[in-house]
Amino acid sequence: MYLIELSDKEIKRRSSEIRILLGILLTKEETAKRGEKTTISCNTYPQAQHYILGTYDGSIPNKSYRDWRFTCYNTEFRCMYFEDWVPSDLAKTKWALNNLSFSLFRVLRQSRDEREVLAIHCEPRETEPADKTIKSHYQYKRIPHLHVSLATQPLPHSHFALHHTNDISMMKNIESLTSFMRNVLVMIKDEVIDTNDKEWKINT
């Protein structure tokens, strides 16, 4: 288990940091200037014993935070991003990151339905099961990892670590993890979002 904590004051500032992080998906440029205007909103979603930060564009959706979306600069793609924090003390003066989740969806041109292409998850509090006979993926799940959602099974449920599992430098604190995620999002832009439409073989 890796403990990434924020104080009560720090977590209330986290939404602006998330908006800056995701701002790079609103421009074709490789980086977005800090403080650049963004159309992405980041708000809390009420859930007992959790501090959930979800993202969307437009009006706040009247649905689960997992169904909130924002559109990136290539409007053929929509994105989902949320962070789930849980109290790490009884007074709720400190919060620990429980789950960070990003998904990229391809918008089908005719139906305008969406198809999940890939997902990036990070579950720092994942622990090794006490029963050693149970096959566990905790060493991959507790650091940023990739799910290839569009592939055939078992790939959508496989956890592909985005860094060597022996190097956990990105898990030191939320600043390190955010910086790592920024590099991941740039890679997704270069390798997926910017690809030619003719390369896609998704039924529309």
Question: Please, could you describe this protein's structure?
Answer:
This protein has one domain. Strands 1, 2, 3, 4, 5, 6, 7, 8 and 9 form a nine-stranded antiparallel sheet that branches. The protein contains three helices and nine strands, in the order βαββββββαββα. The relative contact order is 0.16. The termini are far apart. The model has no long low-confidence stretch (mean pLDDT 87). The protein is of the alpha+beta class and 204 residues long. β6 and β7 form a beta hairpin. It is 19% helix and 29% strand.
Q: What class would the helix/strand composition place it in?
A: alpha+beta
What share of the residues does DSSP label as strand, in percent?
Answer: 25-35%
Total helices: the number is 3
Number of strands: 9
Kindly report how far apart the N and C termini lie: 42 Å
Low-confidence stretches: none
Report helical residue fraction: 10-25%
Query: Quaternary state, please?
Result: single chain
Which radius of gyration do the C-alpha atoms yield? 17 Å
Mean pLDDT: 87
List the topology elements:
Blueprint: E1 5-7, H1 8-22, E2 40-47, E3 50-57, E4 70-71, E5 77-87, E6 94-107, E7 114-122, H2 138-141, E8 145-147, E9 160-161, H3 174-193
Antiparallel strand pairs: 1-6, 2-3, 3-5, 4-5, 5-6, 6-7, 7-8, 8-9
Please give a handful of descriptors for the protein shown.
204 residues; nine-stranded antiparallel beta sheet; 3 helices
